[in-house]
Specification:
The chain is of the alpha+beta class. The chain is built from 7 helices and 6 strands, in the order βααβααβααβαββ. It has a 4-stranded antiparallel sheet. The chain has a two-stranded antiparallel ribbon with strand order 5-6. The longest helix is centred in the first third of the chain and has 17 residues. It starts with 36 loop residues before the first strand and ends with a strand.
């Protein structure tokens, strides 16, 4: 298949002509890549387990075993657990309706989030995880191993909020006066992107 010509117009007609409200986001200046490697491991609970047991066990016993993995303190910069319970899916259902079917909830119950300096550090940590019989055994008892784990890796480009100390530059701050408040005149202006007008 022929490659796209460099003289072709970009898919978004405003890509090169967009008038920026936040100049720090301009093309060429808009990357605020944080200085860490981020890995997200998505998984489901075993079908017959209660939600209460799954989330409590992951927060406590499994987390404690994870922190005992060899070299965790030198290889990891951060470890987070992202929990999704049935109540959260219920609370967000209205948004799925608003989206007109273009958005849906992911089928996972949890996501383990790790920050390391490099991809190699994350691989080394996971090698130690798989070398821990206690931790691997624990995982097989509360994680749906048949469905397995889904992995997403990459970097964070911080837009809004303060950085993690030592991880890069701050994003736009929550109190920034340029942020549009609902009901203000600014909020009523028409904003266009890719030729689409949104209210």
């Amino acid at each position: 298949m022929a490659s796209q010509s460099i003289t072709e117009s970009p898919p978004c007609p405003n890509h090169n002509s967009h008038l920026y409200h936040f100049n720090e986001l301009k093309l060429g200046d808009g990357s605020n890549e944080q200085q860490y490697f981020r890995a997200q491991i998505f998984f489901r609970k075993k079908p017959k387990l209660t939600n209460e047991f799954f989330h409590e066990h992951w927060k406590s016993v499994h987390a404690d075993l994870t922190m005992q993995v060899a070299d965790a303190s030198s290889l990891l910069l951060r470890y987070e657990q992202f929990h999704q319970e049935p109540r959260h899916k219920t609370e967000i259902k209205r948004l799925l309706d608003i989206s007109g079917g273009t958005m849906k909830s992911v089928p996972y119950d949890g996501c383990a989030v790790f920050h390391t300096k490099t991809a190699d550090d994350f691989i080394k940590f996971m090698e130690n995880v798989y070398g821990s019989k206690k931790l691997v055994g624990c995982g097989t008892r509360f994680v749906d191993i048949i469905e397995g784990y889904d992995l997403m890796v990459g970097y964070v480009n911080l837009i809004l909020g303060p950085t993690i100390p030592g991880a890069g530059g701050d994003g736009i701050q929550v109190g920034d006066p340029r942020l549009i408040k609902t009901g203000s005149l600014e909020a009523e202006r028409e904003h266009t992107c890719c030729g689409t007008t949104t209210g």
